[in-house]
Description:
The chain is mainly α and 456 residues long. It has helices at residues 18-51, 59-83, 85-104, 109-137, 143-171, 175-179, 181-190, 207-226, 231-251, 262-265, 268-298, 303-310, 312-327, 333-353, 361-387, 394-422, 428-448. The chain is globular and about 60 Å long. It starts with 17 loop residues before the first helix and ends in an 8-residue tail after the last helix.
Amino acid sequence: MTYARPLDLADDGLPAPRRHLAVAVLLMALILVVLDAAIANVALPSIAASLGAHPGDTVWVVSSYQLAVLVALLPCGALGEIYGPRRVFLIGVTVFTLASAACAIATSLPMLVGARFVQGLGAGAIMALAAMNLRFAVPERMLGSIIGFNTMAVAISSAAGPGVAGAILSLASWPWLFAVNIPIGIVVLACGGFLGHLGGVRRRFNLAALAANTLMFLLFFAGADRIAEAPVGGAALIAGSALCLFALLRLERDTSTPIVPTDLLAEPGFRIAAIGSVVCFTGQMLGFVAIPFYLQHTMGMSPALAGLHMMAWPAATIIIAPVSGRLADRIKTAWLCAIGGGLMAAGLLIAGLAPADPKAILFVLGMVLAGGGFGLFQTPNNRILLLSAPKARSGAAGAMQGTARLTGQTMGSIAMSVIFALAPLSIAPNLALVLAGVCAAVAAVISLSRARYEAS
């Protein structure tokens, strides 16, 4: 089965200027949740000192948020289709904003970790339904460009996260990292009426499937967390996660709109794009974790200088992502993804294999290639994940997009943990960068195989 290129439909999407305001609301909410995932790392030492917690335990301030997002994405996509994407999206914003307030007033680490988990549930709803709301707000002929700007906004937020956190912490204490979300969340809620009002398609929500989905990600996350220090136990937990997936698929085998969107995955274009996304984000996370170690331990840079060199990747993504969105209107997305994955692979392999250079010229060149390739890959790949699904299943498509990203990043973290456990620090970052390059190359080949399903 093929999927067609977007048609120029004059009556598609919301009228201007409401359309522009709706896109601004969606981008504001996405930037909020991406920033919140990126800023907490910087504050962990301050949180440990303030709450009298062990530094190792504070990692759960970050992990609980990531786990909750994983747990929430697929169910929230289904709920958005049932009750309407705007309603569930704005409920997610409300939960996120209230949980941010709870984080800001937390007086103990367990209270903060619990509030962060609830915050992640709200973020999962936002991530899952942003795509569905976007698709109904924007004409399909403009979606390529808008998705490009969306990718650019997410890249800017990810890159700016540590800097924003540092700026806030230089002026105030760590609770303000979460308190600043409150007025932004209120603005998003106040402007939520600009989003399209769409009724859902009422159907039964399978609570047994919800339980299986939740347990699946809990076991997967727990296994990933333990795989390096306790390989047998970690592998057993991941195997348990696989059994939960099997049970989930069995529970929904007769459902036309399952939580895990097997109906969408049955379409070759969607399936290949999802697999390519998982593999690409595995490489991205391997690279992102390895690069600071490479710069500081192999190259001997200070943390500040290392951070400056790392900016080459997001800077290239920011430049290329909008261009890629426009190119996707004219060129087969499979070709763009293949070229992007190839450039990303080349950049990571240059960084991992090139001899150490005091001026880091080859490293910066590699980061520019990798970041540009990543932007060139992600925009058209996200476009296919969104547009190859029927509009009524846009919630599942958006949720699958987020799940593929987080699954890939978790797999990258697992691979990095194993590399650190097996290889000395002197060579581990280089090995990780080479493996990241291999992942990007595999993603390019996978994407190229999608060309035959794409209309010219």
